[in-house]
Amino acid sequence: MNLVEELRWRGMIHDIMPGTEEQLAKEMTAAYIGYDPTSDSLHIGNLASIMMLVHLQRAGHKPFALVGGATGMIGDPSGKSEERVLLDEPTLRFNQICIQKQLEKFLNFNVQPNAAEMVNNYDWTKDFSFLQFLRDVGKHLTVNYMMAKDSVKKRMESGTGISFTEFSYQLVQGYDFCWLYEHKNVKLQMGGSDQWGNIVTGTELIRRKLGGEAFALTCPLITKSDGGKFGKTEEGNIWLDPQKTSPYKFYQFWINTSDEDAADFIRKFTLFSKEEIELFTKQHNEAPHLRILQKTLAKDITIRVHSADDYNAALEASEILFGKGTTQTLKNLSEETLLAVFEGVPQCEIKENAISEGLNIVDFLSEKTQIFDSKGEARRMLKEGGVAINKEKIAESFLVTGACLLKGKYILVQKGKKNYFLVKVES
RNA sequence: GGGGAGAUACCAGAGCGGUCAAAUGGGGCAGACUGUAAAUCUGUUGGCGCAGCCUUCGGAGGUUCGAAUCCUCCUCUCCCCA
């Protein structure tokens, strides 16, 4: 199966420039995707495009991961309704290093002849003078052309307008493609569908400036069946950085996807073959309560993004928290397991003397541990039966005492069905 | 430059002198049902010492026993004419 066919059945093609498939069939083709260092970690929204590079390499082509040290300094107007605040340079450089490290995990940099390469557009942009840029790059495209781009048009129509800086973004990105075409023989740029306009500016620039032919391929924006934004939870993005999103939370995110989404995500985010996925889907439909799709999906991604150990820990924690575990099994856990299992669970601390005489549950949940923002909220949820201590539902009259402690110093608080907190009691 | 409309809780959007902590819808959260799913139903959605009190309706003043509601000024947004 060739790359385009592969991506197509996975639902990962949104737009493809005519001739792209022929180019890929003709020879080993180098392609790139860019990542701007707008944050110190990639999030799962970036995962789809990373997978495109992975598929590319598996199909025998050569992937380039570009870190946007330069473009990140400008700000991409695509999909943004308002001008963005510029990040300062130390932050950008720091983010750039973090993102680079994360990208390295997914690609093979040693296989010949199509080893992956990492490039940074800052390298070929930093010494490019403004005047030179205007003469060498700006001259090839009309402002009319640039203004016709959706990303620009939208901002021109909105009240907020667009700065010259962000307006120029497509030129900088377009030039990247041009540079890579010229120096690295990169003939294809891929990315999310929101990047189509920028990518086409690149192919256009290559055509006019170098007389060359280059191609574009984008994948659709990942969506959820219920219309919600993919990859966001109440607490924010799901990050690839385990410091920002613990492997446990990461695993939980995938486990919680709906049936409909799981069938879609497993195609896009794992490397299972068509036959395997069809089998999983069949098994899932026969016994939906086993949630084979979610489990397979969560396992595969967690292992690939984090590690097998992280997966096992997340799985164990999940089984204790969501399985048939009772207060008794909790009490029987060794302190070591307890801590290991709850590593990814939010934790807070409380002084032992606060509970020695019995502490009102409302104060415990709000003032002392901040598990709830206010006492009113804590009371409300207690009334609704949404709070459990050590897996036992409790009422508003409950008193927190030494008898609640696991291993003499831990209390497991459950807010609603899925949110756990580990409270450490310090003497 | 002239004329008009508006700014209300997370969002949308009622309220137009007391009965307004503010209708309704969406979203969020929780409960039931389940499969840690979806759909559905129910409850809840400013704070607190919670049958009471405190702080909220763009900002600052004022009228009034009493204002989200009336007046003045300010800030911002939108629309129409030039």
Task: Give a concise summary.
This protein is of the alpha/beta class and 427 residues long.
Descriptive tags:
Rossmann fold, 427 residues, Tyrosyl-Transfer RNA Synthetase, 5-stranded mixed sheet, alpha/beta, RNA-binding, 6-stranded mixed sheet
Walkthrough of the structure:
By secondary structure, the protein is α/β, with parallel strands linked by helices. It folds into three domains: 3-219, HUPs (Rossmann fold); 232-322, Orthogonal Bundle (Tyrosyl-Transfer RNA Synthetase); 327-426, Structural Genomics Hypothetical 15.5 Kd Protein In mrcA-pckA Intergenic Region, Chain A, CATH 3.10.290.10. Helices cover 46% and strands 15% of the residues. The chain has 21 helices and 15 strands. It has a six-stranded mixed β-sheet, with helices on both faces. A five-stranded mixed β-sheet has the order 9-15-14-11-12. Helix 10 crosses helix 11 (196-210) and helix 15 packs across helix 16 (308-322). The radius of gyration is 26 Å and the shape is elongated. The mean pLDDT is 90. It binds one RNA strand of 82 nucleotides through helix 13, helix 16 and helix 21.
